[in-house]
Write a structure and sequence with these properties.
There is one protein chain. With about 60 residues, this protein is mainly β. The chain has one helix and four strands. It has a domain of about 40 residues. It is elongated and about 50 Å long. It starts with a helix and ends with a strand. The model has no long low-confidence stretch (mean pLDDT about 85). It binds zinc ion. The site of zinc ion has 8 residues, from loops.
Amino acid sequence: MMKTSEMHLCKVAKPPLERKWYKCPYCQKAALIYDNTAVCSGVFMKCKFCKREFEIKI
Ligand SMILES: [Zn+2]
C-alpha cells in the first residue's frame, strides 16, 4: 500500500484564496495574515510592535 494522500491533495482544485495582511490600526504594521474565507468576531490581539491591543474585525 502506498501513501498517496499527499500527492492527491496537490491536485485537488481549490477555490482561489486571497491572503491579506491585517494591519495594526495604531502603527500600521503587519500584525497577522488572513484569507478571504476568514470569519472573525470578538478576537483581540496585542501588536508586537507598539504593544497595543486591538480587535480584529474581518
Ligand atoms: Zn501596532
